[in-house]
Specification:
Blueprint: E1 7-8, E2 14-15, E3 18-29, E4 32-43, E5 47-51, H1 58-65, E6 73-78, E7 81-82, H2 88-94, E8 96-98, H3 111-116, H4 127-132, H5 136-154, H6 170-183, E9 188-192, H7 200-216, E10 220-224, H8 228-234, E11 237-242, E12 245-250, H9 252-256, H10 259-266
Parallel strand pairs: 5-10, 5-11, 8-9, 9-10
Antiparallel strand pairs: 1-2, 3-4, 3-6, 6-7, 11-12
Length: 271
């Protein structure tokens, strides 16, 4: 398949060319290989799931994509260009935003202020101009605030916009973290276990928002998730990891019927 050419998914959606290409990624910690020569791509406009048992290397792969880890071998390509080793803030400036497995919000700040931090990579005025808050700095603040307000409306969190994050229940904190990532207007959104710790109703809400983000904003999404029902319902394609190796890659149906995946992760049905 031509990486630059779009393709049509099983449900008739057209997906674009390759946005990110991970080529032969190997990541070591001392003598331990967390990721072993893995290659896969993420196409523009798709929802791409990365699954596998605990310790498979999924979060390590997400950390490679977002610049927290630098692989010893392999290449990371983004938008057709080979990416040099970068710090996370530099990766964020390229248009890659993420949420975390363990919520990383400012508990003492309001929901609105937390989401505003997602705009930091778009703020151009210096500290002095922001302190004076006139002219260009004021105009920039207003423009960023408009984008944040749209995200708040989109994720239906208007009622808690002034509430300190520390007072919120877990499910709403997860939604605020998603809002902060969306405020950055990412080309690629990385979600690290967005459903972890949620009840059924909260999972349904989060699934709906993920689909809406992909559909209405056109945002490309790569997610790690343990809930297989969620993965199979949301994803266009799935890559499966086990002990740092890639053991499966394809549509949800292809992965579901892959015997190596069944043996390693999904389990074998018994009468």
């Amino acid at each position: 398949m031509d990486g630059a050419a779009p393709y049509v998914t099983a449900d008739g959606r057209q997906i674009g060319g390759v946005l990110m290409d991970m080529r032969g990624i190997t990541l070591r910690f001392g003598g331990v290989e967390a990721i072993k020569n893995i290659s896969f791509d993420i196409r523009e406009g798709e929802i791409r799931a990365i699954i596998g048992p605990n310790g498979a290397g999924k979060s390590s792969m997400l950390n490679v994509i977002s610049g927290f880890y630098h692989p010893q071998d392999g290449e990371v390509w983004f938008r057709g260009e080979k990416r040099k080793p970068m710090k996370p803030y530099q990766v964020a400036r390229l248009g890659i935003a993420r949420t975390f497995q363990n919520i990383a919000l400012f508990e003492g700040m309001s929901v609105l202020d937390n989401i505003m931090t997602g705009r930091l990579t778009h703020m151009k005025t210096g500290l002095l101009a922001q302190a004076i808050w006139k002219g260009r700095a004021e105009a920039e603040e207003v423009a960023n605030r408009e984008i944040v307000e749209k995200v708040i409306d989109f994720l239906e969190i208007q009622a808690i916009r002034k509430t300190p994050v520390g007072r919120l229940p877990y499910g709403l904190k997860k939604r605020v973290e998603l809002a902060r990532a969306l405020a950055a207007e990412p080309k690629l959104l990385l979600l690290d276990e967005p459903m972890a710790g949620m009840n059924v109703e909260e999972k349904e809400d989060m699934s709906r928002f993920i689909l809406d983000v992909n559909d209405e904003f056109g945002t490309t999404i790569a997610l790690i998730e343990h809930d297989m029902g969620v993965v199979m319902d949301l994803s266009d394609r799935v890559v499966v990891m086990d002990y740092g190796r890639k053991i499966g890659d394809g549509t949800p149906d292809e992965v579901r019927n892959n015997q190596e995946v069944i043996d390693a992760y999904l389990g074998v049905a018994h009468d």
